[in-house]
Amino acid sequence: LVVRTLTLRAALLVATAGSAALGATATATHQLAMTVWTFLAFVLDALAIAAQAITGRSLGAGDVAGTRAATTKMLRWGVGAGVVTGIGLAAVAPVLGVPFTPDPAVRDLLVPVLLVAAVFQPVAGVVFVLDGVLIGAGDGRYLAAGGLVVLAVFAPLAWLAVGTGSLVWLWVAFGVAFMGGRAVVLVHRERGDAWLRVGG
Known about the structure:
The protein has 200 residues and is mainly alpha-helical. 86% of the residues lie in helices and 0% in strands.
């Protein structure tokens, strides 16, 4: 799990470096948007913690069918929670910058960035749930390898987005390549049986 965590941190550093390359307004906007994203991630992380505990208990008891059923149910909850947080974020996006900054340029840029973040909240719900499921299953090696693949895809796309001069496109790259890439990697694993190791 150390490698997995390092790849996640590296991806966030890539995004931060990309925003810095776009100037002071983009950097400030990115930091505000990432603060909001992180707050919502903590909300969704509650599902990941539950998924980790339920999966570990079910597989430890040798209940493969129960693990599958619980995973399906938790994925529904993850998507649902992501839809709720996404709608909520989209609703408050036009005014969310007001209490945080007096800079009108940052406020204006923050709105479309937060709308992009809102769109990807359901994807984040899937990612958090399946991350918890696979951690609970002790599938750390796959998570590490998947993290490296996602980082290898996201980093160049992030810098292509920086080349457009737009923080919004950097966040689109974050949503599509980083969160979307993680979702693809995790769903691919969940669809198979290799992670369903019972009895320990």
